Amino acid sequence: MNDRSNSTHSVLDEPVHTASSNIADGDRFVSRLTRDSMALILAGGRGSRLHELTSWRAKPALAFAGKFRIIDFTLSNCANSGIRRVGVLTQYKSHSLLRHLIAGWTHYRRETDEYVEVLPASQRASDDWYKGTADAVFQNLDIIRAAAPKHVVILAGDHVYKMDYGTMIAEHARRNADMTVGCVPVPREEAAGQLGVMQVDENNRVLAFQEKPDDPASIPGRPDTCLGSMGIYVFNTDFLFDQLVLDAKNPDSTHDFGFDIIPRIVNEHRMFAYSFTDADTGVQAYWRDVGTIDGYWQANMELVEPDPELNIYDKDWPIRTAQSQLPPAKFIFDEPDRRGYAVDSLVSGGCIISGASVKKSLLYSSVRVHSHAELEGAVVLPECEIGRGCILKNCIIDRGVNLPEGTVVGVDHDADRARGFRVSPGGVALVTPDMLGQPLHATS
Fold it and tell me: Do 191 and 127 belong to one domain?
């Protein structure tokens, strides 16, 4: 497909307004674009940097923020942006993810052409399972053709953020782009060796893609800042088809968008970067790659602050999930040496804090904390039982763990390691049922 910088005027050249604009024509323009778009969420990755947290579940199915799953944030972004045709591409240990999608995301009405559809690796186009991000989409080209969208939005299912995809699609259309890459402005020293970086000109046209460079290219006029790729892509549908077919025919390709598709097309086609920034301040908006134990723990802990950057109470941008039918959290005993309380914490439904103290922690659904236990900086996933007198500091307790009375976690890292617990580079201790010899595999 040739560069179309001299193409004639079309509806795609109309002015772009944000979804919050008061200009009705701009709002209708964005809503038309999202209605004619389809989102594909890549949710089949192993999440290996999370170690035992993803031994029995896909990373997008991992619990986050007290009651949600990581994938809920991407799915809620689609719903709130007006993209109601969504495919979720699954592969690695997807049982709990599939169960969650069925329970929480099957409320759309097919007769109005709205759906969240699971697209598992099923060897539709070859004898192989999904070999890479690009191959995962390629193997579902027939499904995309049947939906006939004008634009395809490729999304990662393992990041936590709130983003209106409508404004990104509108910018893609206004620029008459073939492909647009969602990016976050990050300090160059933070991106070095960690993120894929887009080198752009003054108009945000992509000049080159750098895969985790040691010396990232800076944004024009901002020498200390670069544009890190979010793994979010908007394609014109026909252009996407052409590129995926070419990639599938290349025996030397790894069939990945970042490694193969982007480097091949960057110099020959119209590719732009879309900077994901706060509409009011112009600075980087909230986005977290919770792909490490430290990153996952830190992103959870940010939520216990009085005014966290991620507002999960925002009624204008609700985060949807599967709602368990649980009783309210309960705090019992008010004795001088046995008082049940929680401060600077999130405590979900079904929890009972019985004569224990909980500080700066997150307790997910149906956690029971027994008397004289002390929790601080603890992320406790659903259905755990914390025994009497346990002490937990700066740790993650995986789903279904039953901590015996008097267990100490996170105070002495050498002792943690001796018991078979994992200690992250940042000093966060991880405990799973398997580490305690308990038969439950945390698949949910």
Answer: yes
* Tens digit of each residue's pLDDT (9 = 90 or more) over 120-153: 876 655 666 788 899 999 999 999 999 999 999 9
How far, CA to CA in Å, does 284 sit from each of 20, 73, 232, 309, 384?
18, 18, 16, 11, 36
Whether 126 and 182 share a structural domain: yes
Looking at the fold, whether 257 and 374 belong to one and the same domain comes out as no
Give the number of domains in the chain. Answer: 2
Q: What is the pLDDT of residue 398?
A: 97
Domain range for 385: 330-436
The tally of CA atoms less than 13 A away on the side-chain side of residue 391 is 5
Digit-coded pLDDT (tens) for 257-275: 998 999 999 999 999 999 9
Q: Using N-to-C axis directions, what is the helix angle for 70-81 and 95-104, rounded to 10°?
A: 40
Has residue 101 been placed in a domain?
yes
Residue 107 in any domain: the answer is yes
Contacts of 414 (CB under 8 A, 6+ apart): none
Question: Is 318 inside any structural domain?
Answer: no
3-state SS class at 180 = strand
What is the token pair recorded at 39? 């989102």
Check whether 328 has a pLDDT greater than 50.
Answer: yes
First to last CA, the chain: 45
Lookup result for tokens 């950057």 = 309
Nearest by Cα to 40 from 3, 78, 70: 78
Q: What are phi and psi of 121, to 5 degrees?
A: -65, 115
